User: Fold Carboxynorspermidine decarboxylase from Sharpea azabuensis.
Amino acid sequence: MKKTELRTPCFIIQKDKLIHNLEILHEIKARTECKILLAQKCFSMYALYSLIGQYVDGCTASGLFEARLGREEMNKENHVFSPAYREDEIDEIIDYCDDIIFNSFSQLSKYQSRVLEKHKSIGLRINPECSTQVGHAIYDPCAPYSRLGITLENFQPELLKHVEGLHFHTLCEQNAYDLEKTLKAVEEKFGQYMYQMKWINFGGGHHITREDYDKEVLIKCIKHVQEEYDVDVYIEPGEAFVLNAGTLLTSVLETNYNKIQLAILDTSAACHMPDVIEMPYRPPLKNSGLPEEKAYTYRLGGPTCLAGDIIGDYSFDEPLHVGDRLEFEDMALYTMVKTNTFNGMNLPDIVIEDNNDYIIHKTFGYQDFKRRL
Assistant:
């Protein structure tokens, strides 16, 4: 199809930009022999798993469904972490996964015999209590009273007999300097136990494919841990896989005025890009400017009843009209995996752009809304 023929709203995954990111990740693998895993919580578009699997080692999951998807659709290394596993799901999770990471020693004690029976690897998530977040407390696993990871105060080294790996995840959209800082804290608190391990997992949040990301610092951190502790090193980014590799195409449904110019779109922040409200952040919009930067400024909002369903204020060279198409950028990550049907909103189509050809991968309708309820 042509782009102009696409129904809005729709997510468009740009295959060439995805491959660009994959090549950067593969370069890190080649230079360090580390292992890189796709964090499916960020991007679970399995139609592209066969492509992604050509460049990296496998997937990470946050529970049963992601574990099954990773096994069925990529079928390479498959790791899982959850703050607490369900009794009625753990055996199936163990069947699907190669590494099972526990969040507490009580969970380890409860389930480790089942993992060992299946000859799978056991890991523990640690909390170095080293916050590097700025302004995004909702994504800070090292915040006070965090439920994520075992702190040194609660560490029980006498229970490490069958533990083969340690996992820490503290970053969100950050450069390698924050990893370097975090790694120092990890080594100060848990370094003596790292010598007993077979693998160390640096978690996710590494913005490796961002233009200003310092890959040399990342490589230095990986090689240091490999050489000092004689372990395999894993990293499990999500955003880095699809950073700037997808858009959300939307149409203007209505324009209005209430002391400022308003435009209602057929896409919703609350339903289709909830991180806009949760983070919060202002998504980039093609051919637009900051408020008042261009001649015509509009507040863009969704069609739901939620008063706060606001995407942001943007300026344009020309007035907006009903039927105009707008394209939000960097919309592959944490969008499709977080969409919902509040207000009976339909979910956006999912489209793959490949050499200026647009292939519809998935469409949704009334039955998708109804069967959830």
In short: The chain has a mean pLDDT of 97.
